Amino acid sequence: MTLAEDSLEDNTGSAYRVTDKEQNKENNGWPKPSTDAMAWAEDFKKRISSNIDIDTMVGWFANAIMAGMDEGMRRSEEEIRELRRDLEESREQVSELSEEIRAANIANMRF
Fold first, then answer.
1. CB 45 within 8 A of CB 57
2. Whether the Cβ atoms of residue 44 and residue 50 lie closer than 8 Å to each other
3. Which residues have C-beta within 8 Å of that of residue 62, sequence separation ≥ 6?
4. Contact at 8 Å (CB) between 12 and 50?
5. Is the pLDDT reported for residue 69 higher than 70?
6. Which among 57, 65, 3 has a CA at the least distance from the CA of 34?
7. CA 94/CA 89 separation, integer angstroms
8. 58 is in which domain, residue-wise?
9. How many CB atoms lie within 10 A of CB 41?
10. What is the mean pLDDT of the chain?
11. In the chain, which end has fewer C-beta atoms inside a 10 angstrom radius, N or C?
12. Residue 102 has pLDDT above 60, yes or no
């Protein structure tokens, strides 16, 4: 069972069901394309029957959104580091080839 199929419990002990992610996408714009925690919390509150207070949900969504953004940034920074290493290796290869070409040109010169 995936997280999207699990029953979850809110802070009052009341269980609610999270439907499949793909089904949610087709369900009136859920999940939302926004990073506005208040919009997520209000929309989520409308979709479930639970006693979760809106402030708790805003905090939860804000943390989840930021965790996702932080992870995206970490991955981007890692990719940039890899690209910089690749670039440096390429520069070294170009430099070595330039030296080989220069040496070959000198060797082929006739005086």
1. yes
2. no
3. 37
4. yes
5. yes
6. 65
7. 9
8. 3-108
9. 21
10. 79
11. C
12. yes
Please state the three-class secondary structure of the chain as a single string: CCHHHCEEECCCCCEEECCCHHHHHCECCECCCCCCHHHHHHHHHHHCCCCCCHHHHHHHHHHHHHHHHHHHHHHHHHHHHHHHHHHHHHHHHHHHHHHHHHHHHHHHCCC
At 83, the pLDDT band (50, 70, 90 cuts) reads very high
- Give me the count of residues in the chain: 111
State pLDDT tens for residues 13-53: 555 454 445 445 555 666 677 889 998 898 888 888 778 88
Count of domains observed in the chain? 1
Q: Which of 97, 36, 104 is nearest to 65 (CA)?
A: 36
Q: What would you measure as the largest C-alpha separation in the chain, in angstroms? A: 93
- Identity of the residue numbered 8: L
In the chain, the amino acid numbered 54 is I
**pTM: predicted TM-score of the whole model, two decimal places:** 0.50
